[in-house]
């Protein structure tokens, strides 16, 4: 399953200016908030979570919230994605990959999820 999200970085900058920490804490959990360094970086984190929800086919909501999608980095600095046990088990996800890139005022993220054959509906 594949999901993709494209966002204009300035849109999230305005959101942070308007709502401050409330906006950041809505999207980032205690597990991944340490990754927040800049507006451009926040846009990448947001896009990765949105792309993951799209790959799951449910969007952000009751079945999968922002805090169910946990982002981290590999020792070499590449982004990593994992899911809360509740979401991972519900959807039967066995592996997840994420790529995030920035170009000018745009940020894009792509997520690929692998699902166990027994959970494919």
Judging from the principal axes of the Cα atoms, what is the shape? globular
What would CATH call the architecture?
Answer: Alpha-Beta Complex
User: Under the CATH scheme, which class?
Assistant: Alpha Beta
The oligomeric status of these chains comes to single chain
Sheet with the most strands, sense and barrel status: 3 strands, antiparallel
**CATH topology grouping:** Ribosomal Protein L22, Chain A
- Secondary-structure-derived class: alpha+beta
Average residue-wise pLDDT:
94
Strand order of the largest sheet: 1-5-4
Low-confidence stretches: none
How large, in whole angstroms, is the Cα Rg? Answer: 14 Å
Helix coverage percent of residues?
25-40%
Helix and strand succession?
EHHHEEHEE
CATH superfamily: 4'-phosphopantetheinyl transferase domain
Gap from first CA to last CA: 13 Å
Short description:
The chain is α+β, with helices and mostly antiparallel strands. Helix content is 36%, strand content 31%.
